[in-house]
Specification:
This protein is α/β, with parallel strands linked by helices. The chain is 46% helix and 23% strand. Helix 2 runs parallel beside helix 4 and helix 6 packs parallel to helix 8.
Length: 216
């Protein structure tokens, strides 16, 4: 599916609100780098098939849209899922654009195979175990300091728990932030309800409420 050049605000809104994930290039005619990125998106559209749709718009012709998404320079690529911006790449970073596009296409394939919407998938994931931790890495190999600290604290309780590596699934990583209205990771869920992140866990530990809270 080739890159569609959008010239009307109504068309832009229609496309980003569709079920299919949209990769939107904010460009300008005078910037040569935008051509490089558009060429890369054309190639990605061939690879991802109909799993994603790609659009391009002139950022200067849509000042309100550009301001809303804080487009400070071109090229900027924003990834939309049902109208919500779930990720972005600022500047000419073809590798990052390619990686994020492919991950979103893989997620779309998984969702299509299971017949689940993103919301249904997230609901299933947070209920996967009574105590679920969404983090960078997994319990055996945390990949950020906050996740490592949290796993260390939870391990001290000796309670059973499951982890989900958000670095391996961009759709879940971005979608869960909106789904739970919690912008950072790690995130701890007990019986499907968000408890919070590392700071909350530390507070519960300090007040001797951690174990009872994690048991639910």
């Amino acid at each position: 599916m080739p890159v569609v050049v959008v010239t009307e605000a109504e068309e832009y809104q229609k496309r980003i609100n569709e079920d299919k994930t949209t990769v939107a290039l904010f460009a300008a005619d005078w910037a040569e780098q935008c051509g490089q990125v558009k060429d890369a998106l054309e190639e990605l559209s061939k690879i991802t098939g109909d799993k994603l749709q790609f659009i391009s718009l002139n950022a200067e012709q849509f000042p309100e849209i550009s301001m809303k998404h804080q487009i400070e320079a071109v090229p900027t690529v924003i990834f939309f899922a049902k109208g919500s911006a779930v990720d972005r790449v600022d500047g000419v970073d073809i590798a990052a654009i390619s990686s994020k596009s492919k991950k979103l296409a893989e997620s779309a394939s998984s969702a299509a195979a299971s017949g689940q919407t993103l919301e249904e998938r997230l609901t299933a994931l947070i209920h996967k175990a009574p105590l679920m931790i969404f983090m960078k890495g997994d319990r055996n190999g945390p990949r950020c300091g906050f996740s490592k600290q949290l796993i260390g604290i939870v391990n001290e309780t000796n309670l059973p728990y499951e982890t989900f590596d958000i670095l391996g699934d961009e759709e879940v990583r971005q979608g869960l932030k909106t789904f739970s209205d919690w912008p950072t990771y790690p995130q701890v869920y007990v019986k499907g309800e968000l408890i919070g992140g590392l700071d909350i866990i530390k507070e519960l530990l300090a007040s001797n409420e951690l174990e009872a809270t994690l048991k639910g």
